[in-house]
């Protein structure tokens, strides 16, 4: 007897190719797909999932990301890094830097990421199946690995009420930048997450421009989520010749051997000039 299976057409469908698209002399420009599953009509609700590891992936980091993200572009769908190594049991600064570079690459291509893995799970049991063999955010003794917790707690925009042009985080200064064209028809806020414990122990400064483009700003009670609500004034809409531009700077006052100096860069985006002051610190 046949049974009808209902589906929710509003949900996103993740799909992926084999995860070794650039190993064993296999061309990393080929995935085996020519369109999203189901055809182009499903492109807007499809997400191309891919993995990256320095091994077994052998392609250069940026080249590999370029190919995977442009695969998604060619199929008119989104891309998402659904796996990369976040293990760092030795709490190595070099590993911290490597993990940060992968996340920087995700920011460069304006895509999201998921790290592997949270904890060993079955792999920690007697005769358990290893699912990556790393301890992830925990140390073997069960305590939190503060270095892994910090690297995955970097500042990012959870929601953006417009079209993202640039997203950038500097792990040395904890300065975060987000540029996007407003869509004044969107009533939900842009939400930026900033972890106070690991990146802003003495708080942060928030700067945005033009100030008239934001109707209101709210902060969560724990201080780690900032919501920025777009103006309804269509003169700031990104579709006009003078597009609205937002520049967010989360300025860190760190506790590690900090030294402050003034740095005044000037940014020109569609006739909008943004000036900001960054307090930097030595990163230990």
TrEMBL record:
Gene3D superfamilies tied to this protein: Glycosidases, Golgi alpha-mannosidase II
Alphabetical UniProt keywords: Glycosidase, Hydrolase, Membrane, Transmembrane, Transmembrane helix
GO biological process, one term: polysaccharide catabolic process
MF GO annotations: hydrolase activity, hydrolyzing O-glycosyl compounds
Record domain Glycoside hydrolase family 5 C-terminal: where: 154-232
Tagged with keyword Signal: no
InterPro entries: GH (IPR017853), GH5_C (IPR041036), Glyco_hydro_5 (IPR001547), Glyco_hydro_b (IPR013780), Glycosphingolipid_Hydrolases (IPR052066)
Domain named Glycoside hydrolase family: residues: 7-119
Transmembrane segments annotated in the record for this chain: 235-253, 260-279
The keyword Protease appears for this protein: no
Protein family (similarity comment): Belongs to the glycosyl hydrolase 5 (cellulase A) family.
Protein name, entry field: Glycosyl hydrolase family protein
Protein source organism: Reticulomyxa filosa
